[in-house]
Amino acid sequence: MYWPVLALLTAFFESSKDVLGKRSLREGDPVVVAWAWRFFALPFLLPVAAIAGVPPIGPDFGWALLLGGSLNVVTSIAYMRAIKLSDLSITVPMVAFTPLFLLITSPLLLGEVPGTRGMAGVLLIVAGAYLLKVKERSSGWTAPLRALWREPGPRWMLLVALIWSVTANIDKIGVQNSSPVFWSLAINLFIAGALLPFVLRKKKGPASIGALKGLLPLGAAGALTTLCQMAAISLTLVPYVIAVKRTSTIMSIFWGYLLFAEKGIRERLGGASLMFAGVLLIILP
Q: Taking 60 as the threshold, does the pLDDT of residue 176 lie above it?
């Protein structure tokens, strides 16, 4: 079973990308950083794609690239705006709701229906994401959900989670009509190109871009995230891969604590443990 390893690597590189993006947003514009995330992935993806070569292109590749790329332009901006507005530890966990949405979108778009254990694992992961806000339980168990609507960052991230439940399925269509490497390159190139006009319209765009010379690590993390995810979804059901990928939320909480001195890590350990149990249900035979 190679896909669990690829999915866990996806989670690690995703959490690394979150941290690097948060650091960049201390002084950078969300749109510029969102563009940099995709653009600086290209130097790492191009050599891999050149070695792998151009695969046979299927008939659904074009519309998948156009639709998936356009939706990801929206999520790229919304994602960076979310982690600029609020702490990583309360914002990034909202993307854990993507697997819940995938239980609806994957059967509709791909005909993929998880088994009983797999579905239980997905639900545990989503429940764990909810409990990551358990520090507010003194106000009642519904307090974390109510707090979601008081925080601007989590609201943006929940929108990202919903859109990603569609684009994750489109990614699989793109991979099936090309290859994991070629699709990773194509989708990042599309998004970077589509975001460039927005970047150039920024009054401080050129200065911001000049300040991005240190963002190659962000691009590397983004490239590795995409490559591992696309390889994983080519091997198993999309909801499984994305559910395991969401363990990046646990990693991001610890990064937030270690690097940004974000509070409340102890209160979130219960939710993290529940998410871990969900992952075990999914990946263990």
A: yes
DSSP state of 226: H
Question: 191: closest CA among 46, 36, 84, 78?
Answer: 36
Residue 265 — very low, low, confident or very high, per pLDDT cuts 50/70/90?
low
Whether the CB-CB separation of 21 and 80 falls below 8 Å is answered with yes
Q: Classify 236 in phi/psi space as left (phi over 0), alpha (psi -120 to 50) or beta.
A: beta
The whole-chain average pLDDT of the chain stands at 82
State phi, psi for 55 to the nearest 5 degrees: -80, 170
Output Rg (C-alpha) for the chain, integer angstroms: 18
What pLDDT is recorded for position 264?
63
Three-state DSSP state, 141: coil
Amino acid at 118: G
Mean pLDDT for the stretch of residues 112-125: 91
Burial class (CB in 10 A: 0-12, 13-18, 19+), 260: middle
CA distance 259 to 273: 22
Percent over 70 (pLDDT), the chain = 80
State pTM to two decimals. 0.84
Residue from 59, 65, 98 nearest 245 by CA: 98
Q: Give the residue among 258, 217, 28, 247 at the shortest CA–CA distance from 121.
A: 247
| Amino acid type, 77 | I
- Which stretches does DSSP call E strand in the chain? none
